[in-house]
Amino acid sequence: MTELLVKNACVIDPLNKILMEIMDIPVRDGRIVESVSAGADVIDARGCLTLPGGIDSHSHVCGTKVNFGRYMSPEDMRAGRTARRGKMHVTSGYYVPTTYGNSYRYSAMGYTTVLEGAMAPLEARHTHEEFTATPHQDMLANTLFDGNWAIMEAVRAKDIKKAAAIVAWTLSAVKGYSIKLTNPGGTEAWGWGQDLSSIHDMVPNFNVTPAEIITTMIAANELLGLPHSVHLHCNNLGKPGNYRTTLQTFDLVPDTNNGRQTLYATHVQFHAYGGTTWRDISSKADDIARAVNAKPQIVMDMGQIMFGRTMTMTADGPMEFNLYCLHHNKWSNHDVELETGSGIIPVLYSKKSLVNCVMWAIGLELALLTKNPYQCLLETDNPNGAPFVKYPEIIGLLMSKRYRDEECATLNGGTEQRTALSALDREMDWNEIAIMTRAGQAKALGIDAQGKGHFRTGAEADIAIYPIRCRDVDPTTEYRKVIEGFQKTMYTIKRGRVVARDGDVIVEGANSTFWVNPVVPDDLNVASDPEFVKKFEEYYTVRMGNYPVQDVYLPRGKCIRTEAAL
Amino acid sequence: MIIKDVVCPFCGCLCDDLDVEVDGQTIIKVQNGCTLAEAALTGNNRLPAPIRRTATGWEEISFDDAIRETADILLAADRPLLYGWSSTHGEAQSIGVHIAELLGAVIDNTSTVCHGPSILAIQEVGHPGCTLGQVKNRADVVVYWGCNPTEAHPRHMSRYTTFATGFFVPEAQKDRTVIVVDTRRTESAEIADEFIQIERGRDYEVLAALRAIVRGKGSILPREIAGIAREQLFRVAEICMKAKFGAIFFGLGLTMSSGKYKNVRNAIELTDELNRHTKFTISPLRGHGNVYGSNEVFTWITGYPYAVDFARGIAFYNPGETTAVDILRRGECDAALIVASDPGAHFPHAAAAHLAKIPTILIDPHRTATTPLCRLQMPCTMAGIDAEGTAYRMDGVPIRYKKFLESSYPDDADILKRIHDRIREVQGS
Q: Would you tell me which residues 69-108 of chain B have a C-beta closer than 8 angstroms to some C-beta of chain A?
């Protein structure tokens, strides 16, 4: 038995409606308890801001395309490197750091759980190998179904149960957590070098539309009782005028789940553009936020961009090719048979570029215009919009109008006409920031039930203590203190164990991977469906028996079983 | 007993559909495998126990002694090199990187003498690729450039490309056009619809000419390029541009001939250019079964696919300086640990000769051409035969090697773990 008492913590725990109360947090064997014995180890938080461990609900940190981003970028590896020190391994890289680099930097910022935004099922083993080498965060994997042939056939047959059964088999085979759709249908079209331009376009050869894929998968997701909703990267990412596609997509979404949203729309900044070309691009954040305000069934994340160099990487292969044609920088592409695509190119977001300035403003507008902070979460689509180490600056921008104005004064002069940012006075408070960085993520991912994102008795003792005295700091003016405070915790505690102190990781990691195993009736198990098996063996290049990820890849796997209503 | 769907660990194709008949500790029969697979799986030249060189020959020693001596040699060295890694699983590769980190050593894999130049080209211009199933199901044009899959990757054509039936290519041989580009008429050239025979060392020019044609600037070309009539290149460019899905595969004929990584860069940029007209991909034909895995493992731990130097504490990468051949040829290296590869057979003479001068330790199941260069050798299991673990196919698809034979050998990952722990103990870290 190990016991810990965090004393004098200034706690914000939105899911338990605790707001800046000075209190003690007792921990036994990795969980929050009512009380501990007098022999417990004690950490004195000295009245500093204490939050549940941070949760990133959309970040690209592990797997085939992330590693290829590293592989092709020695210039970035040189941009951030540290030697082995104490328990910390060597790290390299700034915007696509090595796995240990990601893990240590997240820990230093108080993050204890991360969802990998896109895992191709065929390459899942790779993602899980890197999860093991990202040892200080519990990990979850969005599993890609956007161009899945079997799914598209079920959609064409209007067979929701079949689609659900395919999802159930795939998630349990590849130890995935949730359904991810990236440019649904578009990644299959990209197999022929094409893309789709509307949610009602037909996917070549499959005769289904993105809208049909999305609605079928939402229905299947709810039939399976998955903890998270469908996680969608909308069609037409990054194209001027794409806000219409986004709004049309939102209109497809029913409100069918009482516990959480029915659709998680990711990196919506990239999907909120007005105009018709790069010349007349403008912000449509107000239209998008208005739709979200009216639809409690939708949660989005910002997809904020921040100025500087970074790397774009996504399963959206055709979008990356368009970016390549724009930037003429190095371009990688990696289509995955029967499943999805992917692409990578480095980018520089510059204050000189009007387009980039508009993008920057849109992300902030989305957050400031969304009334309920549970519906707009703070992310950068790491590293697409910016590396996650920029989160503290985004917190500063959301909390301080003055900081936003100072930044706006340094931007391309045309920005003000294209966006409404400078007219927004809202300044977020500590509670809203706590929601946008952990409580909201826990709810949206459905892991509050696993004891994440709150301090209820029995919760996992993932605790971040920041050197910020929130009663004494005025974030609207002292935003520098806020930014510095969120960059480095005094203590990051994971399952009751101090993993980082003042920015340094001090123990070996022992993370878990959460995955979902939806139980479906035997007659719907696709593994015993001769048609499914035959097509698998004919068209994949690995045998079906060699496809599932073995348990050995999840040394501390946590399986969530759901009962499907099939 | 017949074990189904065994993964062949020999080449980068990692065919996972072999049926192997086993009787106790002996392989009776291998089905579905190519001739190379059969030889690799049934070959028998395994070293029975660790051996140490004496004044007159070799003596057998215990694993305990061998591991201690290995750790001592590496700890005493100023510039140790850890080389190889391509014929074992990712679990061993990962421990290898951590040993290098502890020692401040250089760690390199066999890419250094095969597709290292491809990696350099990719680092300049990226890599438009795909998994092999994408080619199997879609490609109507397949190009093999500077490689001879019939002999080096014997099932590449039948499983993934030319002869493989795919969803959109129901009659493979009829539906696919095969183009082979090489300096000589290989076995692979015999089945090509178009064979382009290039004068040696002039691949770069031919790639540049094709790029010019694809960009609509073909009129500037001379009548003959690298021994090839201009008309043939026009014809080939047209086949490529009219393809629905084209796939280029290339081998050491491109990476290790005159121009090296610049050839590969030009081939990638030709692929980029073709993507403005249709869908095209390009992929290196990787040699060793898990060489790509060594690139992947090195990358997620250190940030670099090969040639990683920890001497400064941080991970440093500068191919040409931190590559194994260069470190050996300069005489810089004063101890070497070789794992799962055979530099004695593949390195230039000067580099191999230096290995013989310094204390070199080999962890390998077999007596190889590297054995005579060594001071000490430890036998181990063979990944994919009597050890399981992760391997990455040439296209990045991770596959788990099966263990289908019991043996008394330790896994190389276990040997390496013991060396690692011994080093930590001595260092007090």
A: 90, 94, 98, 101-102
